[in-house]
Amino acid sequence: MPSPQIERKLAAIMFTDIAGYTALSAKDETKALKLLDTQKQILTPIVEEFNGTLHKEMGDGLLFTFPTVTDAVKCGIKIQKKTKEIDDLNLRIGIHEGEITLKDGDALGDDVNVASRIEAFATSGGIAISSKVQQNISSLPEFETSYVGKPELKGVSQEVKVYCITSHGLPKTDEIVEPIIEESKSNFNIFAITGGILTAIGIAFWIAIGVFDVSFGSKAEVPSVGILMMENRGDVEDEFWTSSITEDLIVKVASAGLIRVAPMKEILEVDIKKSFEEIAKKLRVKYLLTSSLHKKEDGFDLRCQLLEAESGNSKYANKWSESIDKAPTIVGNLAENILRTLKVSTKQDIARAPTTNAEAYEYYLKAKFNFDRYLKLLRTEDIISARGLLEKANELDDNLLVAQILLGRTYYFQRKLPTETIIENNTKSRNIFEQVLRKAKKSGDKFWIGRSLRNIGNTFYYSDKKTAHNYYKRSLQINEELGDKIGMSWSLSNIGNVLLSYRDYDHALEYYKRSLSIREELGDKWDIMDLLMNLGNTYHKKRDFDNGLDYYKQALTLAEQIDDKNNMRSLLTNIAGVYSSTGRYDMAIDYYKLALDITKEIDHQFFAGIISRLIGYTYLRKGELDRALDYAQLSLNFQKEISDTLGTGFAFILFGEIFERKMDYYKAKEYFTKSLSIIKRLDPYSKERITETTIFLFHTFKYLGKQYDVNKIHTLIKETEDIGFEINLRLYKLLEDTSYLETAYNQIQEKADNLEPDDAAKFLSYPIPKAIVEEWEQVK
Q1: The CA-based dihedral angle spanning residues 238, 242, 248, 254, taken in that order and rounded to the nearest 10 degrees
Q2: Lower CB count within 10 Å: N or C terminus of the chain?
Q3: 3-state class of 57 per DSSP?
């Protein structure tokens, strides 16, 4: 094999790039490819006129060298003049002077990198130049220049000042404003101290007087950014790089501090054919990050641009290459540049790479891609593949904590499994999270300490809420130390969930409202909506129905604004639940049917089955047994179509209750028996449902003349705190204890007292309330 031809010389280096080419490719790939041909046809004779040489084509980017700076500058000016009138051929040009190494015709070296970096600071249709070029042409009166700034250029060791050419009708680039780090830190610390305790009213007050220098809509608003899906400019099998890097970048930037980042679930719904302004409006952000990655055999070519969506102005742009061994640094460096540009300070070492082992990192990214696909499609082969890849990653680097956390999540989130396997997987995930916690403590990595504590808490949530609560509080403390706003909000919500399960409603409300105050700081409608829903749930369970309804309706308004049909369905269902809890069954049915319509629209059979069952129950309470039976059958059909065995078990309970009311006790017994068998096997933690179904079953035994276990009833009652009037009526009949009848009577009177007279009269006329009143009047 012949030796490579290597030559070193001084030259003027020019980079060209088509502004907006990525967006054009997404809209019309054929047109974009034709544009590349047009560019080459126009540029080739101009470059030859000024003694230039084309060394490399990188997608829509071109690398040229010239014998003199003057040749390069004049060539650049003529190129911009010739391409000005051609649709979509909006070029940015960067020019630098320095030493290059020519190897088999390719131009290499640090000065080549400088030229590629400064090109990103040119305005569309403009030319950016380094200080070396500016000094070279400053004595020539025909050229005018303007100072742009002194940016930090990735992968460049030398200090470079950037100018732009403003003569010859070329556009001026805005001067780079360097971030004032100390000022940013000061503002952030005020938020860290006070953010956790502000109420919604308090936030509005502080914003209004400007203590934080933050106000929604003002010049100092909380920065908001949408990190669009990184474009894969390589082979289809390289998609895992761009997908996983995008998601990790979103998480890293969002956890850095006071910045709102559109979540991945919203990014996946972006219509890339829309304008940047329309996309930003949809995501409710001011800035957008576009980026692309081209995976080559020995490395990557990358581009990124941070745009102010409304104006289209570029705030930061870069085009660079990385070797394979630097792959783990991509996310951290991108995150650091975004935060620096938007002047967001952070207490985290945001650029820290998760590993130095590029092969381990690649396994992790592939695993993440497979796991995300599993969460969408629930295909077992995807989660098995993800685990295999993660195990390989951990063999190569047992300190790659992000891979180990993901491995734990593959066990924790696996669905459609027998109860024994779910419990076994939960233990496996906990063991993995505990290992990560030990390693994070050893290395002093507080970010992963906080995340590990929260994940461990999740594994205890269903079996030991006291321990879960302890882990969530420890996680909250770490997140507060880091200023991790997203982590703080999650931990506060988790604590609220535990307190809600304890029926400690007032303290649950306190934690949910603290979490809400953080989300309001960030102006994140999606998460604000979720927290409003949590508050509604808490007030609902507290039996403060007016406040519950108010929070649900606030959340529904936000869901409609962001066109979130899944949460519209949930909130309509919750609102119906409030009306059902207060005995306003007609209103409940109206809202349930609206929820069912949306659920059918989005083709979600699982929830269609649940809502159909709830409608059936509401008709049952009204005494309309045939309508109830129709919806019970509809619910069962939906559950069978998706092979939802547990949902089938719940539908059987409704069938049992309907046939019990029809006094067909044999059929009722059959359905209650089948449902209990399924629920005990697949949902053993559902004690209230097991208690109620057992009481229904024993009630049929009574009418069939069968024996039932009174002691078992008393044991179940002790384990169940929230018993409604329908169950209390049956307990009275089973145990012949009038205290249960009295409780049932008081429960229905309390409902009636909180209704308008007409609604109260209607409620008391329904079969079960009417039977309770008549029975009580006989025994009191």
Answers
A1: 180
A2: N
A3: strand
